[in-house]
Specification:
Length: 641
C-alpha cells in the first residue's frame, strides 16, 4: 500500500490533493467499512502474513523496521526518549521530562532549537551509522496500555514466541549450535539492531513481572551520563535462552572462578566487541543480564585479564563495551577485580593524553608498540564511577594513586629538560608518589587557572571543559574523606573568583563540579570557601540561567550566620533579581524579601523551608530509595509518639 502511494505521488498534477493520497484514503475507508474485524485482529492477521518472510525481512533495510514495530506491538512496549527536548510536541501541549520530573532539577541552561543545516551525505553511509542504530534501539521503554488487554495479550504471547523462534534460527532443540548465520546477523546493519531490540523487549517483559518497589540509587542524568535503569531478566527466562543462542553459550558448563571452558562464547564476545553493531548488542546484554551471568561474561570474555582488557581499551569500538561493563558492575568483588587490571593500564599515562600528530614512519612504529598514545577518558570516568558506587575504600585509593601516577608520567614525558637532568631519580619519584591532586585537576578538566583574577567577566563567556574529566571529578568528590580532601582543597585553592564564576555559569561545570561539592559529603568545607570567593559575584550569578542554581545550593549549604549575610548582600540587588525568573526564584529560595521584613519573618521562612525539605526526604528516603524503606523507621517513631 505504501509503495502504491509513493508511485502515484510521482504523477501528481500539483493540485490540492494528490492522487496517491486520495486512492489510499479510499482504500483504508473501504477496508474499515467492509471488514468487521477489530484493529487487534487485523494486526494479528498481518503478523501471521509476515511470519513466512521474517528471516528475509531481518536483513532488509526497510523490512527490519516493520519487524521492530511488530515485536513492540506484540510485547506491548514502546520506546521513548529518556532525555527529551523541552516542548518536543507543541501541537498537543504535552510537557517533556525536561520541564517536569526528575530531569527538570538537573537541567542547566536553556535548550534552544537550532536551525538544522543539510549536510552532504558521506560515501559509504547508506547502511546507517552505529550511532543512529544505538539511538533507536537503546531508548527507554514504556508499557502500552492499549496492548495489555487479556484477549490481545493471550494471542500476542504465542505470536511473539513463534516470531522469536523464527528470527533466532532455532532448530527447536536445546543443543548448543556452533557459530553460524545468527552470529553474522548480529553485525548486520539491519539485523543487528533488531536482535538488540529483541533482547531488551524480552528483558523488559520478564523484568516487569519481577520488579520491586525498590528504586536505584541514581536517577537518569544527562549531564552526569547516568543512564536509566535497565530491567534485568531472570534465570530460566526466554531472554536468557535467546542470549545463550546469540553467544553459543553452553549452560551445562559451569564457570568456576577464573576458569572459562566455553568452546565458542569467548571468541564470539571478542568478535562482537570490535564491531560497531555487535558492541551495542554486548552493551545491552551487560546491562540486562542477571548478576551471576554478568560475572561469567567477564570471565569468558577475558575482561579480568590485564592483557586482554588493555586490548579492549585500546580498540576504537571495544572501549565502549568496557565502559558499559564498568557502568553495569553488580558487586564489590567485581569492582576489586577490575581495579587490579585497570591500575597498571592507567599508570603508564597512555589513556590520559590525546594522540599527537606524527610522521608516517613514527606512526607505523607506534602502532606496533604496546604503549599506544590514545586518550580514553571515558574509561577513567567509568572506572571512578564504579569505585564510587560499588568499590571499597581500598579500590578507590588504588585507582586515585594510579591516576596521579599516570598524570605524572605525562608530565615527565613532556618535560624533556627535566628528564635529561635527572632521568633515573625523577622517574622513580614520580612513579611512586605521582602528581599532586592540585596538579591533576587542570589536566583532568582541560582548564588552566586564570593568571589575572580581577579581569572583567561577561555572561557571554563560555568554558570548554572535558566532559569525562568533569564527571570523573564529580565522583572523586564522593569518595571517602581521607581520599577526597586533597582534591577538594586542591580545586578550591587552584581556581580564583573569575574561574569559579565561569564554572558556576557553565552547564557541565555547574552540574558536575559545583553540585558535586555542594550536594556531596564535602559541602561543609566547600561551601565556606566558595562563599568567600564568590561573594561579590552572587548578584550576577543569581540572575543567570545556569548560575542561579549554584547560588541557591550555596545558600542551603551555608551555616546560619552566613545565610543572613548572603541574604543581606542579595537584598541590595532587588532590581536585578526581580528582572527575570531566575532572580525571582533566588529571592524566594534565599528569603531575600523576608530578610527585609525583619529577623522574625526571615527565621520563619527558613524554618518553613527546613520542614519542607525534611518532608520531602521522608517521602523519597535519605538514601535515594523508596519512602517505605528509607523513611519508614522515622515515620513509625512519630506515630508511636
Amino acid at each position: 500500500v505504501a509503495e502504491c502511494e509513493v508511485n502515484l505521488d510521482e504523477f501528481d498534477d500539483k493540485q490540492d490533493e494528490c492522487e496517491g493520497k486520495m486512492v489510499i484514503d479510499d482504500s483504508y475507508g473501504t477496508i474499515f467499512q467492509e471488514n468487521t474485524s477489530s484493529v487487534p485482529e487485523l494486526l494479528m492477521q498481518a503478523f501471521e502474513e509476515l511470519k513466512p518472510f521474517a528471516t528475509d525481512l531481518t536483513v532488509h533495510v526497510c523490512g527490519t523496521h516493520v519487524l521492530r514495530t511488530a515485536l513492540c506491538i506484540l510485547a506491548g512496549v514502546e520506546f521513548v526518549d529518556a532525555f527529551a527536548k523541552p516542548n518536543g510536541n507543541k501541537q498537543d501541549g504535552t510537557v517533556s521530562e525536561w520541564e517536569s520530573g526528575v530531569l527538570a532539577a538537573t537541567r542547566r541552561g536553556k535548550l534552544k532549537d537550532k536551525k538544522k543545516k543539510k549536510k552532504k551525505r558521506k560515501p559509504g553511509s547508506d547502511e546507517g551509522s552505529s550511532a543512529e542504530n544505538k539511538a533507536t534501539v537503546m531508548k527507554e521503554m514504556n508499557m502500552i496500555a492499549g496492548c495489555q488487554t487479556t484477549d490481545f495479550q493471550s494471542n500476542a504471547d504465542v505470536m511473539l514466541t513463534e516470531m522469536i523462534q523464527i528470527l533466532s534460527l532455532s532448530d527447536n532443540t536445546n543443543n548448543v549450535q556452533p557459530p553460524g548465520e545468527l552470529q553474522q546477523r548480529t553485525c548486520h546493519p539491519s539485523g543487528g539492531p533488531l536482535l538488540v531490540q529483541i533482547v531488551r523487549l524480552l528483558s523488559y517483559r520478564d523484568g516487569s513481572k519481577h520488579e520491586t518497589k525498590k528504586q536505584g540509587k541514581d536517577s537518569a542524568d544527562r549531564r552526569l551520563g547516568i543512564l536509566p535503569n535497565e530491567p534485568k531478566y531472570s534465570s530460566g527466562s526466554d531472554a536468557e535462552a535467546f542470549v545463550h543462542k546469540l553467544l553459543c553459550w553452553d549452560a551445562n558448563i559451569p564457570v568456576e572462578g577464573d576458569d572459562a571452558k566455553q568452546p565458542h562464547a569467548g571468541d564470539i564476545i571478542y568478535g562482537l566487541s570490535g564491531e560497531p553493531r555487535g558492541s551495542i548488542l554486548l552493551e545491552a546484554i551487560f546491562r540486562s543480564c542477571p548478576d551471576e551471568f554478568h560475572d561469567a561474561l567477564c570471565v569468558v570474555g577475558g575482561f579480568y585479564d590485564e592483557a586482554t582488557l588493555k586490548e579492549y581499551i585500546y580498540h576504537g569500538v571495544s572501549n565502549f563495551v568496557v565502559q558499559a561493563l564498568l557502568n553495569s558492575l553488580r558487586n564489590r568483588d567485581q569492582a576489586n577485580k577490575m581495579v587490579k587490571c585497570l591500575c597498571p593500564i592507567i599508570e603508564d599515562g597512555s589513556l590520559l593524553q590525546p594522540k599527537k600528530h606524527r610522521a608516517p614512519d613514527e606512526q607505523a612504529v607506534d602502532e606496533n608498540s604496546d604503549n599506544k598514545n590514545i586518550q580514553r577518558m571515558g574509561i577513567i570516568w567509568r572506572a571512578v564511577e564504579m569505585c564510587s558506587n560499588s568499590g571499597s575504600s581500598q579500590d578507590q585509593e588504588q585507582l586515585i594513586h594510579a591516576l596521579m601516577r599516570g598524570f605524572a608520567s605525562i608530565s615527565a614525558g613532556d618535560d624533556d629538560n627535566a628528564a635529561k637532568k635527572d632521568r633515573d631519580g625523577k622517574k622513580k619519584r614520580s612513579k611512586s608518589k605521582g602528581l599532586s591532586a592540585k596538579g591533576c585537576i587542570p589536566l583532568l578538566l582541560g582548564l588552566t587557572a586564570s593568571s589575572d583574577d580581577e579581569e572583567a567577566y561577561s555572561s557571554g563567556e563560555r568554558l570548554t571543559l572535558n566532559a569525562a574529566g568533569a564527571r570523573t571529578l564529580f565522583h572523586i568528590f564522593q569518595f571517602t574523606e581521607r581520599l577526597r580532601s586533597d582534591w577538594v582543597n586542591g580545586f578550591l585553592s587552584l581556581y580564583g573568583t573569575n574561574d569559579l564564576a565561569k564554572i558556576a555559569n557553565d552547564g557541565l561545570g555547574s552540574r558536575c563540579i559545583m553540585d558535586g561539592l555542594l550536594d556531596g559529603p564535602a559541602k561543609e568545607v566547600a561551601s565556606k570557601s566558595l562563599y568567600s570567593k564568590l561573594f561579590n559575584r552572587l548578584p550576577f550569578l543569581a540572575a543567570e540561567r545556569v548560575g542561579h542554581h549554584v547560588v541557591m545550593k550555596l545558600f542551603h549549604a551555608l551555616p546560619y550566620d552566613d545565610k543572613a549575610v548572603m541574604s543581606a548582600e542579595l537584598s541590595h540587588s532587588l532590581n536585578r533579581l526581580g528582572s527575570n525568573a531566575m532572580g525571582r526564584s533566588v529571592m524566594a529560595s534565599c528569603a531575600v524579601k523576608e530578610y527585609l521584613e525583619g529577623e522574625n519573618a526571615w527565621r520563619e521562612a527558613l524554618a518553613k523551608q527546613k520542614v519542607n525539605e525534611e518532608w520531602l526526604k521522608d517521602i523519597l528516603g535519605e538514601d535515594g530509595g523508596s519512602g517505605d524503606e528509607a523513611g519508614g523507621k522515622s515515620r513509625k517513631k512519630r506515630r508511636k509518639e
